[in-house]
Structure formats: C-alpha cells, structure tokens
Amino acid sequence: MLSAPPGPADPGMPANQRVVFLEALGLTLREHYPGVLCEIRRFRAGLPPVMRVTWGNEESEIGCDLSGDGWNFVHGLDPSRVIGPAGSLSASARAVADALGLGGHPDH
Which pTM was predicted? Predict the structure, then answer.
C-alpha cells in the first residue's frame, strides 16, 4: 500500500487516501498507455476528488470509494459502478483503457 502520493501534493489541499490511489492509477495508465492524460480534480465543496482520464476525444472521470471490501476505483462518484480494486492497479488501468477504447498493451 502506498504511504505517500507519488507526485507533489497541491500545497492548498492536503493529500488523502483517495488522491494517493488515483495518482497511482494515473501513473499506471500513463506508463502502460502513452498519450493518456490524467488530471486529479479536487473540489472544495465537500466532494471527493476524481481523476479525469482523456484519450483523444474520449474522456472518463474515475473516483475512488471505500466499501466493506476495501478501496475500489469507480466510474465518476458512483460507488455502484466499480472498475476494480485499488490494490490491483494494472487490472484497473486495463479496465479504464478498455472503456476509453485504447486497445491492448503488449505487456497485458
């Protein structure tokens, strides 16, 4: 499990577990699918952060939700639309890539 965010934290917003997992997923996506853009969006209105993933004209927002089974990546802020467990970055990245129509990576 990651104990610190892989990149520099926004000095105006404290890091939290969701951001740590989303940043790790973003790194995995960029490593396996060059050209994918990932941006963490933090809201001040009490909403949890999400990651916007962009490939060409396709875009998806990925959230991270804590359930009884642990942390899961979800589509948007909908905990019922589970992408995969936060502990399985490669499989979750593959599911996001498939949803964006990225096709396969040679290592998968």
Answer: 0.80
Distance CA(41)–CA(48), nearest Å, equals 9
Q: What is the pLDDT of residues 34-59, one digit of tens each?
A: 999 999 998 878 889 999 999 999 99
d(CA 56, CA 11): 30
- Distance in angstroms (rounded) separating the CA atoms of residues 97 and 52: 13
Helices (H), the chain: 17-32, 89-100
The answer to whether the beta carbons of residues 51 and 61 sit under 8 Å apart is: yes
Question: CA 107: distance to chain centroid?
Answer: 20
24/21 Cα distance (integer angstroms): 5
Amino acid at 38: C
CA gap 49, 31 in Å, rounded: 22
Longest dimension (CA), the chain: 41
